From TrEMBL:
Alphabetized Gene3D superfamilies for the sequence: 3.40.1190.20, YjeF N-terminal domain
GO biological process: metabolite repair; nicotinamide nucleotide metabolic process
Alphabetized CDD domains for the sequence: YXKO-related
NCBIfam families: yjeF_cterm, yjeF_nterm
Record has Aminoacyl-tRNA synthetase as a keyword: no
Entry protein name: Bifunctional NAD(P)H-hydrate repair enzyme
GO molecular function terms attached to this record: ADP-dependent NAD(P)H-hydrate dehydratase activity; ATP binding; kinase activity; metal ion binding; NAD(P)HX epimerase activity
Top-level division of the source organism's lineage: Bacteria
Protein purpose: Bifunctional enzyme that catalyzes the epimerization of the S- and R-forms of NAD(P)HX and the dehydration of the S-form of NAD(P)HX at the expense of ADP, which is converted to AMP. This allows the repair of both epimers of NAD(P)HX, a damaged form of NAD(P)H that is a result of enzymatic or heat-dependent hydration. Catalyzes the dehydration of the S-form of NAD(P)HX at the expense of ADP, which is converted to AMP. Together with NAD(P)HX epimerase, which catalyzes the epimerization of the S- and R-forms, the enzyme allows the repair of both epimers of NAD(P)HX, a damaged form of NAD(P)H that is a result of enzymatic or heat-dependent hydration.
Length: 499
């Protein structure tokens, strides 16, 4: 799904109105119904609901929401900011609501009343139309709402937060939930914004998505529909050669677990065969834990010192648990220089690269690098002030290096050499556990070996990793799940997505 800017969504709005011969007021009603559908499923009738509405269409949504909630028996107290004129749809919904209940006007800060405890708050002050710093009466209301302990539900976006770029001012609603219309907005993917958005949820308001076909966006959201289209059938007349042969160069004394996690994940995601090149002391561990893997044994017991023969493999992954011994660094350099096909490069291999930036030119084009934020900082040779700067540095690096950067974290960003970014839709905080990244490296390398393009292998891999993590969390809990659980639950992904 494309991620559109506020202006592009407005364009899609107009397209929908024209295509369906409906008014903007009718579309507003649909948005209100979608919000209320979510809201009534997740809250109780018991508490009074205070709805704060601005002068624009976000406020119009709020007023329409208030009408719908009253009709469903909720106790609702609506407020409208009247520091200037209202948009026509906002005004239309205000006169409708005023026939049902008293609506308190807020013209200046003096009109603000004390907000009690133990109510629910719906924030419909400002939406995607935000175009300047929030000050005056809007800022005063936002501060007052934020100062209470009440649960806050933001309509479309938390008021004061720009949809498409980071806010610089202070007056922003800190919502517990953001119920966003039709598609996620770019700002929902930035970790610094979690304090404002809380948990976010997409509700369908029936915009006609074919109207977005010609709209260009550098950002997209990898959801289940995208994956269904991407995943390929396993042919009936197949053999293990059909599904690729992976070489994994991994492990060092004390970190053999990383090699086993990645190797097992390679097999659990459908690759035909995996050969793991490990230091000598890891043989018993890896062979016992994964009898299905073939071993290539390094002459050194503790670290990898020799590059095995790389001919005949469909994909090569390097880095998990490797350590950064100078001999191991030499192996990475030799691999980079001698490889033509894209590699998967993770963990220690990324840190070795960060210490030897002149090797970057040897990385085969379209290789997949999977840094977590700290590894990206090392690679970039700088500290990032915020998640916006981090994302944009990843974009700059992916373009310059002509590689795919998988910037890991919640909503992992898969950044293409073109600069296009695909945010992932699966996963949960239970994935923040030791070894989880090793599992991801295995999965991506496996898909690459099976003939998926590097771009698809990276997106599929990240999605499947998160999907397995979600399945694991349902049984083991977020806190209780460990990296090997992610591997064990990988088949759930194929059960749901394989043809
Ligand atoms: N798909 C869509 O686009 C739909 C949008 N709808 C709603 O419409 C909203 C967008 O509505 P609008 O474009 O009217 O904009 P808003 O309601 O977000 O803002 C209203 C007005 O506030 C003014 N404003 C901007 N920044 C301000 C600031 N810092 N302080 C004070 N005033 C400020 C602007 O001039 C704008 O006209 C969406 O967020 C959504 O809630 C829904 O009604 C229906 C469908
Ligand atoms: N809060 C989170 N929500 C969703 N996924 C997360 C979260 N935190 C981490 N992850 C995922 O877990 C994995 C962690 O990888 P990494 O940091 O390399 O771990 P390790 O080095 O321990 O293997 C990544 O795929 C990342 O996207
Ligand atoms: K809002």
């Amino acid at each position: 799904m494309k991620i559109l800017t506020a202006a592009q969504i407005h364009q899609l709005d107009l397209y929908t109105q024209e295509a369906e011969h409906i008014t903007s007021l009718a579309l507003m009603e649909r948005a209100a119904e979608a919000f209320v559908g979510w809201f009534t499923k997740h809250t109780s009738l018991q508490k009074e609901i205070w709805v704060f509405c601005g002068r624009g269409n976000n406020g119009g949504d709020g007023l329409a929401i208030a009408c719908l909630l009253i009709n469903r028996g909720y106790k609702v107290k609506p407020f409208i900011v009247k520091s200037g004129p209202l948009t026509s749809d906002c005004a239309a919904n205000l006169s409708r609501l005023e026939k049902m209940v008293a609506v308190t006007s807020i013209v200046t800060e003096e009109d603000l009343v004390k907000i009690p405890a133990n109510i629910l708050i719906i924030d419909a002050l400002l939406g995607s139309g935000l175009n300047r710093e929030v000050t005056g009466v809007y800022a005063a209301i936002i501060d007052k709402i934020n100062a209470t302990e009440n649960k806050v539900y933001a309509v479309d976006v938390p008021s004061g937060l720009y949809s498409d770029y980071p806010a610089k001012h202070a007056a922003i609603i800190t919502a517990d939930h953001t119920i966003t219309f039709q598609m996620p907005k770019l700002m929902l993917f930035l970790s610094d914004h979690e304090a404002f958005t809380g948990a976010w949820h997409i509700v369908d308001i029936g915009l006609k998505m074919e109207g977005a076909a010609d709209i260009v966006s550098d950002y997209s959201y990898t959801d289940a529909a995208v994956i269904h289209k991407m995943i390929r059938k396993r042919p009936v007349f197949s053999h293990k050669g059909t599904f690729g042969k992976v070489l994994l160069i991994a492990g060092s004394k004390g970190m053999m677990g990383a090699a086993t996690l990645a190797a097992k994940s390679i097999l659990r995601t459908g690759a035909g065969l995996v050969c793991v090149h490990i230091p000598g002391s890891g043989v018993d561990i890896v062979q016992t834990l994964i009898p299905e893997a073939i071993l290539s044994i390094d002459p050194n017991k503790e670290v990898v010192t020799v590059l095995p023969d790389i001919d005949g493999y469909s994909a090569i992954g390097i880095g998990v648990g490797l350590g950064e011994h100078p001999y191991t660094a030499d192996v990475l350099e030799e691999l980079l220089v001698s490889s033509v096909d894209p590699l998967v490069i993770d963990a220690s291999a990324l840190n070795i690269l960060a210490s030897n930036p002149h090797w970057i030119t040897h990385i085969p084009p379209n290789s997949i690098l999977t840094p977590h934020p700290r590894e990206l900082e090392r690679l970039a040779g700088m500290k990032f002030q915020n998640s916006w700067e981090r994302l944009h540095k990843a974009i700059e690096m992916a373009k310059k290096m002509q590689v795919i950067i998988v910037l890991k974290g919640a909503y992992t960003a898969v950044v293409m050499p073109t600069g296009v970014v695909h945010f992932n839709s699966t996963g949960n905080s239970g994935l923040a556990t030791a070894g989880s990244g090793d599992v991801l490296t295995g999965i991506i390398t496996s898909f690459l070996a099976q003939g998926y393009s590097p771009a698809d292998a990276a997106r599929l891999g990240v999605f499947a990793h998160g999907y397995a993590g979600d399945a694991a969390a349902e049984v083991k809990s977020k806190a209780g799940m460990i990296a090997s659980d992610i591997t064990e639950y990988l088949p759930m992904f194929f059960l749901d997505f394989e043809e």
